[in-house]
Write a structure and sequence with these properties.
Number of helices: 27
Keywords: ATP-binding, Helicase, Hydrolase, Nucleotide-binding
EC number: 3.6.4.13
Organism: Rubinisphaera italica
Protein name: ATP-dependent RNA helicase RhlE
CATH superfamily of the largest domain: P-loop containing nucleotide triphosphate hydrolases
Strand content: 15-25%
Largest sheet: 7 strands, parallel
Mean pLDDT: 91
Helix content: 40-55%
Structural class: alpha/beta
GO molecular function: ATP binding; ATP hydrolysis activity; DNA binding; RNA helicase activity
Number of strands: 24
Number of domains: 5
CATH architecture of the largest domain: 3-Layer(aba) Sandwich
CATH class of the largest domain: Alpha Beta
CATH topology of the largest domain: Rossmann fold
């Protein structure tokens, strides 16, 4: 085997495993990772495309290092975001570990209690686990934590981009800090991701006290060729209701043309067809299978999304691994690295919210050596009516902007989660349960000073604890320790406590006792109504409100189901790139003819309104549209600033419509820029529009508004957009 210097650093048993698996060489990425992990004491963050060998880059050296003493306790933990991903990695690691006689364990909801008890009794080797299952160990096996993890040396964090900047990531970071309390030495961290927008921020998230300890390893030797097309379709009449869209005789011509193209392009080979909303996944699966059935290929298109039953999702994954070529219509559930075999091409219906998501989905194709990555992105634009942002065909322009930023190799940085007091409440309850009772000072030290919530000031934490006491989540003993209150005990005992993120109450959908999926309780259909679910058509025959169960039977009619879920957060640079796309005359070779026509029409409208020179567009003597071309959070801050000054405002996707003429608005913006209010005065104006986290209901107004100030309000960014608007007025 070549590359001897890295290869010879591996344990002999791992060398034998590679030989028996037929490996002839190590990839450069793996060589570098071996040198860093075997030759230094550093942590490591690996950023490389899907199928670049990241897992082996982490575990070849880790297994070599723990092999001599693999049974002292659990020696290495792999944390993955999905049970299916853990099962995939378990199969991959089992092959390597059997040669080294290192045990590999899984711990999640589908693993038997017997297997878990055996691990607790005789811990060792590698443990693969989700953040929620790690939480369950803190809650239910607290007396075994030191026995399980005292010699823990390595923690591998997979798909780290999907964690950082989210409630789940804050939860995981807190669990890692708490885990340090039970280990003899500080475990080394290895982060894995295909898309990292701001590596220095991720390094700081991984190791808050010593971010310089995290070495960054970027794989620049495994760049694949990309075949990409953007297909736009024009819906030449007014937007229809959801019911009429689903009436096969009245479907919009633009959408039908899109479906025809997807069917022609993706009815052969193995492909993934991503749709942004679960209701859309159901609609397109039904439409595509209707066409497949007409040519004698029923069931050609499979389905996968988070509201389907585990059995249906696993069936889809199994079928994709088989020999027959299927295409799966899916939501973000297949965006991460679950093994579903060799996918040839990706379809993306509707513009995604981020470059990161676009890259992740593109990366699901072309996993074979030398194979290109393929994607076709589809958008449908309705006929614009009146003077508004629709005349600039925003979905098409955003799709072009994301594509261009992807080609520039730019990715969004993580969102701020500094103000996540909901997860702090969760961790207070968890730590009290783990210890049986703890002082406020120890809570502060473990969770704030040495934990994941270092940006939470002491006075905010004290106020939070007092509010938790008022809500009966915690109470104080005569000795001064905090213990769970009655409501706190009830919350910790609930089946969904292990997850720090919220889940909507749901009804189970069943056919002859076989689970099909779930629907939110706020969207429960009536008896006799029709429903699309699991890619099939159903009629509701019974609704059991007591047991939250809906019985269905096969039917011919259909109605698109409704699910909860909001829009994504758009970064400022994406909106700025949209403005650039409209301002210049670049011809994009990846656009279809309709896309080129719509782009030209949007550019003509943009120039005719002189929006390349000004951000303010007068509509009448009493109304003006402001195009700040900025990110979601800055636009929300601008909206709050205008409302704070009693201005009547309507928010669009990327514009603000204000009931003032241009001169009045310019004068008002100057006054705002000269006398900015404090963020805490703006937070109440946004509190009703900000999506609540899981335990936000236990916050008082002051705490909720503090949280909004940390994570949503961006006064510095708003000032820049105010200045840009005023400059454009002067230049105009």
């Amino acid at each position: 085997m070549s590359n001897h210097s890295a290869y010879e650093m591996l344990a002999p048993s791992i060398q034998r495993a590679l030989y028996k698996k037929g490996w002839e060489t190590l990839r450069p990425l793996q060589e570098q990772a071996i040198h860093i992990l075997c030759g230094t004491e550093s942590d490591l963050l690996i950023s490389a495309q899907t199928a670049a060998g990241k897992t082996e880059a982490a575990f070849l050296p880790i297994l070599s290092l723990i092999q001599p003493n693999s049974m002292e306790s659990v020696r290495a933990i792999y944390v993955g975001p999905l049970k299916a991903l853990i099962n995939d990695q378990f199969r991959r690691l089992e092959d390597l570990c059997q040669y080294a006689e290192i045990p590999v364990h899984r711990w999640h909801g589908d693993v038997s209690s017997k297997s878990k008890k055996e691990l607790v009794k005789r811990p060792g080797g590698v443990l693969l686990i989700t953040p929620e299952s790690l939480e369950s160990i803190f809650i239910n096996r607290s007396e075994s934590l030191r026995h399980l993890f005292h010699s823990l040396s390595y923690i591998v964090l997979d798909e780290v981009h999907s964690m950082h900047g989210t409630e789940r990531g804050t939860h995981l970071r807190s669990l890692l800090s708490r885990l340090d309390h039970y280990t003899i030495n500080l475990p080394r961290l290895v982060g894995l991701s295909a898309t990292i927008g701001a590596p220095e921020q991720t390094c700081h998230w991984m190791r808050p006290d010593q971010p310089e300890r995290v070495k960054l390893l970027l794989d620049e030797n495994n760049q694949k060729s990309v075949r990409f097309g953007l297909f736009a379709y024009f819906q030449d009449h007014e937007e229809q209701s959801e019911e009429s869209k689903l009436d096969e005789s009245k479907s919009a011509s633009g959408k039908q043309a899109l479906i025809n193209h997807v069917f022609q392009s993706f009815s052969k080979d193995k492909n993934l067809i991503f749709v942004n909303a679960r209701s859309g996944v159901e609609f397109y699966t039904d439409e595509l299978n209707r066409r497949a059935k007409s040519i004698g290929k029923p069931g050609q298109f499979l389905i996968h999304h988070g509201s389907l039953s585990k059995e249906i999702r696993q069936h889809t994954e199994k079928m994709m691994l088989g020999r027959r070529p299927y295409s799966t219509v899916c939501s973000a559930t297949l965006e991460l690295g679950i093994d579903i075999g060799k996918v040839r091409s990706i379809a993306q219906i509707g513009c995604p919210w981020s470059v990161s998501s676009l890259l992740q989905r593109l990366g699901r194709s072309g996993r074979e050596e030398g194979a290109p990555q393929r994607m076709q992105l589809y958008v449908v634009e309705p006929l614009p009516i009146g003077e508004n942002e629709a005349q600039y065909y925003p979905e098409l322009i955003q799709a072009i902007a994301l594509t261009e930023l992807m080609l520039e190799k730019w990715v969004e940085p993580p969102l701020s989660s500094v103000g996540d007091l909901s997860t702090l409440i969760h961790q207070v309850l968890s730590l009290i349960t783990e210890t049986g009772g703890v002082s406020a000072l120890m809570l502060y030290h473990r969770l704030i000073k040495a934990g994941a919530f270092r940006c939470v000031p002491q006075e905010v934490f004290i106020r939070l604890l007092k509010k938790m006491g008022q809500e009966d989540l915690v109470e104080q003993t005569e000795e001064g320790d905090l213990i769970l209150g009655l409501k706190g005990e009830k919350i910790v005992r609930s089946h969904d406590f292990y997850a720090a993120f919220s889940s909507t109450p749901e009804f189970r959908i069943v056919f002859q006792s076989r689970p099909l999926g779930r629907l939110p309780t706020i969207y429960v259909p009536e008896v006799g109504s029709h429903l699309l679910l699991a890619g099939r058509r159903w009629r509701v025959i019974e609704v059991d409100h007591t047991h939250r169960e809906i019985a269905v039977k096969p039917a011919q009619g259909r109605k698109q189901p409704l699910f909860t879920g909001g829009n994504g957060v758009i970064h400022r640079r994406v909106r700025q790139k949209m403005r650039d796309v409209l301002s210049d005359q670049t011809v994009y070779a990846y656009l279809n003819p309709t896309g080129k026509e719509l782009l030209q029409a949007a550019r003509q409208a943009f120039v005719s309104k002189r929006l390349q020179q000004t951000d303010l567009l007068p509509l009448s003597d009493s109304k003006t549209i402001w195009f700040p071309w900025t990110g979601s959070h800055i636009q929300s801050t601008l909206l709050a600033l205008l409302k704070h000054h009693s201005m009547k405002v309507t928010e669009g996707l990327f514009s603000l419509e204000i009931e003032m003429n241009e001169t009045q608005l310019s004068n008002a913006l100057r006054k705002i820029a000269k006398n900015l209010p404090k963020p805490e005065l703006l937070a109440p104006l946004l509190s009703h529009s900000v999506e609540a986290r899981k335990y936000d209901e236990f916050l008082d107004d002051w705490l909720r508004e503090w949280s909004i100030c940390q994570d949503i309000i961006d006064l510095d960014g708003a000032v820049i957009e105010l200045q840009n608007a005023l400059k454009s007025v002067i230049n105009h």
